[in-house]
Amino acid sequence: MKVKLDDAAKLLSQFVNEPEIHKEISQLSYLNNEFNKLSFKNLMDSDIQTKNGKDFNFSNLKNELTKSFSIGKDGGEIDDLLEYLISNNCYIYVPYSQDWYPENQHSYTVAAHPIDNDDEGVGYRNNNNGKNSNYQQVMVDELYAEDSPVVIIMPSDPDLGGGGNNSNPNPVFGTFGSGTNSMHTVYIGYVRLADYCGGIFEGDIELRIKRIQPYWNSVTNSAEATEPVELHINYPREYAKAAVNDWNVYCNGGWLKVNSTWDTNWSTNEDQQGIIAYDYDWNASIKKTSVALTYKGVGFTVSFDRDTKYEGDFLGKNNEWWRDWFYATNQNPTPFDEVKYGYTVRSLGSLKFTTPTYTLYY
User: What confidence tens digit (pLDDT) does each residue in 223-263 have?
Assistant: First the structure.
């Protein structure tokens, strides 16, 4: 795998900065990072890629890949390199937008994922506009990408094309209806993560927010924990950079609009739930952490701990998130609370997020 990715990076570096191909690859970085990955399989299936209802043409890139990835610089065959990249779900990844860099510094460096780490790897730079095998070898890391645009040849990502923000493009917030009964829906509105969760070869951050709450089991006559409810959020690395540097304007200061439904029946009774956040890594070992839960019944209270598993970088947890307290403070912050877009900001370590609500009375 390591050798194949490196071969692909060398070859792509020879033509990535040709004007028409550079223009096509730059489509992966001028869209506010909504479209910063392109799998070799999808590209070979069709040179027209559709994202958010728009079509993007990669015909020149596809044609050049087909030619160059089957012929080496000495005229010899490259052992089915393109077929290997397709069958192993490898993809092209652009971590930072072109508008990040000065206009005279838009030439791409192509790097291969080093496999054995996510901080530093070999890249290839060719500043000529025509094909040229005399590339310059450089070491690519986060600091390098501060000054030079980078394209990365990435290995298979099990979540590529899956997961997602599950966002609602037109959510309804506020209070509606009338009556003595109520139903509360809670969303994750905006999120901000001031943590790269690894080096530049980590890619985008696969954020997970997991919630566990107590309930009374009438069969066993005991307080128990629900199965965890886990929300998946694809958080672009570019937003993390804005948050880490505490910028205010670029990428909205790191605040990514998500508007994902978190709970469609949020009770406002006095129960204590447990919440954890982590950056998912499919290749990480499974770890455990404990959350504290409290169920409050009529005339009695039961407190207990519950272990929960995660895979990746642990970001934080909250053992004091009472459901009634949440509703009382969500739009009525204390003097010490941060407020964003009209809602109290919730924090789990370096992660911040808002929780807008919809309440229906009936």
Answer: 998 888 899 999 999 999 999 999 888 889 999 999 998 88
Token pair recorded at residue 204:
């985008």
- DSSP per-residue codes, 53-96: TEEEE-HHHHHHHHHHTTB-TTSPBPTTHHHHHHHTT-EEE--S
Residue ranges of alpha helices (H) inside the chain are: 2-13, 19-25, 40-45, 59-68, 81-87, 142-147, 237-244, 323-329
Residue 4 to residue 90: CA distance in whole angstroms: 10
Is the pLDDT reported for residue 162 higher than 90?
A: no
**CA-to-CA distance for 320 and 188, rounded, in angstroms?**
18
The predicted model scores a pTM of 0.82
The C-alpha atoms of residue 124 and residue 40 are separated, in whole angstroms, by 19
In this structure, are residues 259 and 187 in contact, taking their beta carbons and an 8 Å threshold? Answer: yes
How far from 326 is each of 30, 140, 270, 359, CA to CA, in Å?
38, 44, 10, 14
Q: Which of 195, 68, 200 is nearest to 123 (CA)?
A: 200
Q: How far apart are CA 349 and CA 107, in angstroms?
A: 37
Nearest to 121 by CA among 10, 281, 235, 11: 10
